[in-house]
Design a protein that fits this description.
two-stranded antiparallel ribbon, about 290 residues, 15 helices, 2 strands
Length: about 290
């Protein structure tokens, strides 16, 4: 699947979902806030991953893969809305413009995040007409990726603990939704989901390492959100632990692990090439010269 085709499918699925939730009968403020949270999006890395894996597995029921990809992105956007709120990161900027709570207030931000979570599961449920059993499997995969005890909710909760389990924290906060996206793509295409989790966790950790590097090396204007948050909030950061060169090498090792972990499927070779190509964009330009 080409980059443009994937983009069109993702944006169309998201627009359809938001149109159901944010029509003329919706309270105007929360409808605007939910739209603000989703559009324009970032790189859509997670839904692209879901679609790429679905394609590698045959993607014989694209209604389901599109629903899974949209659900993953809606949940990601919801997590960003809540993560930015004053009770957590208190970030006033997201994707280069005011975060949802900065633009609409805390009450609307809280509710809009909740609304996006519900909308994600509604999107999966509406795809059940294409295949009820696959839709049920897809819903379970997505729920585990965001819920307790190993999903995004758990990741956010670990930040509130005085002595967090750092491995569990990092896997839940970032890795869980990448794993969920991987497994969602497989489940939507009728393949067993669990073997795809390792790939997602490797890519999730790679993305987190890249984010740690960006937090140290890049400007707020470059990454579209506040910098120095890890140090300010006392969170672990791979650059502080390993240095820039060590963190960059770790990122490359994780990408190699991800490529090697791709399970047997009709499009295995093409998927491995795509992962290597797309993951190369994770590493900030400033760090690439010291990663060798």
């Amino acid at each position: 699947m080409s980059h443009d085709d994937a983009s069109l499918r993702i944006e169309d699925a998201l627009r359809r979902a938001l149109a159901r939730a944010c029509g003329r009968n919706a309270p105007p403020k929360i409808a605007s806030a939910m739209q603000h949270a989703v559009f324009p999006g970032g790189q859509r890395i997670r839904p692209r991953l879901a679609l790429s894996i679905a394609a590698a597995c045959g993607d014989d029921k694209p209604v389901l893969s599109a629903a899974g990809a949209a659900a993953v992105e809606l949940l990601h956007c919801a997590s960003l809305v809540h993560d930015d709120m004053p009770c957590f990161d208190n970030a006033g900027i997201r994707r280069g413009r005011p975060s949802v709570h900065a633009a609409f207030g805390e009450q609307i931000a809280l509710l809009s995040g909740d609304g996006l979570i519900v909308l994600a599961f509604e999107t999966v449920a509406l795809a059940a007409a294409a295949d009820p059993l696959r839709s049920a499997a897809l819903a379970g995969v997505v729920a585990r990726a965001v819920g307790m005890p190993f999903g995004i909710v758990a990741g956010q909760a670990w930040e509130s603990e005085s002595s967090p389990d750092l491995v569990a924290y990092q896997r839940a906060k970032t890795g869980s939704l990448f794993a969920g996206a991987s497994m969602a793509g497989a489940a939507a295409a009728g393949h067993e989901a669990e073997p795809w989790g390792a790939l997602g966790f490797c890519l999730g950790e790679a993305y987190q390492v890249a984010d740690d590097i960006r937090d140290v090396l890049c400007s707020a204007a470059e990454i579209g959100k506040p910098i120095g948050q890890d140090e300010a909030l006392g969170r672990p950061n791979m650059v502080r632990e390993l240095g820039v060169a060590g963190a960059a090498r770790r990122l490359k090792d994780l990408v190699d692990e991800a490529v090697a972990s791709v399970p047997a499927c009709p499009g295995q070779t093409a998927l491995r090439i795509e992962i290597q190509s797309q993951a190369s964009r994770f590493l900030p330009r400033e760090a690439s010269q010291v990663a060798a």
